[in-house]
């Protein structure tokens, strides 16, 4: 633990004490108010317990918890709101609605809120294991997912991220990230009631649900957009409209492009209106204008509406983009943080059981600020995006130096920060690496990106990966990459060539990567299909709505026929599933995997092997991961006792450890 971390911890503890004594004071005041009046002689009048004291009505108690939570945040919330919007009228409207959403929140969710308030680390426990899936690809409908909960449990998963499922228009959906109605589920997937039912069922099984909250934009098919297009000024003010190109041209000077090939530019010309509208993503995704307090308020109501359906984790999509300012890159502006901080407080007032997961696909120094500070937290969790990209760089280069550096950065952050770790997700891999450092080792940005893309598309001699480029910029040569974990590890190639030896090697890489990902500090997230080694799905090319977007290569239908193999140890699925299940089981049992454990690197003196340490009062664990394909020695020397490999059960010394090619160890110090 770094020094500043310790200082923060102490401050945190002091703050907690202050708050507790504050609430103890409040409690004392309440008790005094409820207590019987003293007799003139100073002695308290003796009353039979229930004789006089009026039973505190449930409703009052409820009211009190809302008011207490509001009271805790009121000053700061109002301050930030006024700073941004300076409108008492809109602020009052916000407060009125917060109360309304609180009143609408059902009792079971309020109970969950209370339980989670008492156990604020509930989502960071070692037993947490996430999985992200597309409802239609996985089980057709929301009810289908409910019927498949047994499989989800079998995977050891207790946190399910349902990919975007709100109303959208086929062909103009960006995989569901163009929302046409925040309060309606896509008809083909079911209804809001089905979602609520699924959430209830999940809660019974101790499973949390995560849903995307796409707040940067709406679909052009959203009612606001339609009314804006029809000329209603009030709705036009919710977006960015321009009747000539002079302001858009100024923006374009400094704002980078998200989809340079599939959707170039940040503005779209609307011939029917003879106007431009701001569209940072696809032309049918209109950016919302958060300078307008109505937009902020209404979007908060949408957030709370979803929370009240029983959602536990809200993934705030593309959050760095939500504030626009001419002359800047329109990313991560200070107002974004003000808005996220307000969201955090609003959540804590109305539905404190909710966790905010920020999607900040940016370089590390831009990511961490979204955690906010200990006193003024913003997101509870953030994606560990740089680690993900750096991991695949390491797979290609078999050189752990950059990953080691990245681990050092992660371990220097306070352990209150919770990262969501993953190997693959629904999006492409952008090669956002630490190029200044790589350049010192002779890897220059442009050729290195090309090398990575050539490696993973399988163009290079000896490469076993299969996949496709994404948003290749023919001018700069820049490109991102898409494929499933299994295809990147060589499962697809080995299967196609029916090469049993190569298949064994591919599975080994896949398992080692999962073992490493599960070891990282934070919460592990599986991508549905990875547990059975699902490979790329090329059928998207036949669908005109998808053909131009290679991200669909890893968004294929879940192959239930392959699930049948998981009990057969001779199959790919049998081998992979069983080994991942074993790792997950160990992780769930060993408390030292809790996100609060200390996390650091251990020097292995071999550029092929990454050495990591987790330590807490629950023990000490060393992870060794060989990213090279040959046996190597990890020159560690931890002479603080004997260790046991948690997988084989073998006792071993933590010094000079032989690690097979693409092998790994999870070694626990014996107590
Ligand atoms: C996020 C999503 C991505 C989507 C974009 C626009 O980055 O992960 O799939 O295209 O937001 O909403």
Could you describe the 3D structure shown?
Helix content is 40%, strand content 17%. The protein is of the alpha/beta class. The strands form 6 sheets. It has an 8-stranded parallel beta barrel with strand order 1-2-5-11-12-13-14-17, surrounded by 4 helices. Helix 13 (334-350) links the parallel strand 11 (313-317) and strand 12. 44% of the residues are buried.
Summary?
The chain is of the alpha/beta class and 671 residues long. It is built from 23 helices and 23 strands.
| Quaternary structure classification | single chain
**Count of distinct strands:** 23
Count of helical regions: 23
Largest sheet: 8 strands, parallel, barrel
Portion in strands = 15-25%
How much is the radius of gyration in Å? Answer: 26 Å
What tags apply to this protein structure?
single chain, 671 residues, six-stranded antiparallel beta sheet, 23 helices, 23 strands, 17% strand, disordered N terminus, binds alpha-D-glucopyranose
What's the helix and strand layout?
Elements: H1 3-34, H2 58-85, H3 88-104, H4 107-118, E1 130-133, H5 135-139, H6 142-147, H7 149-154, E2 159-162, E3 166-167, E4 181-185, H8 192-204, E5 208-214, E6 217-219, H9 223-229, H10 233-236, E7 241-242, H11 246-254, E8 267-270, E9 275-278, E10 285-287, H12 293-307, E11 313-317, H13 334-350, E12 355-358, H14 364-367, E13 381-383, H15 385-397, H16 401-412, E14 418-422, H17 435-440, H18 445-456, E15 468-470, E16 480-482, H19 485-489, H20 491-496, H21 500-519, E17 523-527, H22 560-563, H23 572-589, E18 598-601, E19 609-616, E20 619-626, E21 632-645, E22 651-659, E23 664-669
Parallel strand pairs: 1-2, 1-17, 2-5, 5-11, 11-12, 12-13, 13-14, 14-17
Antiparallel strand pairs: 3-4, 6-10, 7-9, 8-9, 15-16, 18-19, 19-20, 20-23, 21-22, 21-23
The chain binds alpha-D-glucopyranose (GLC).
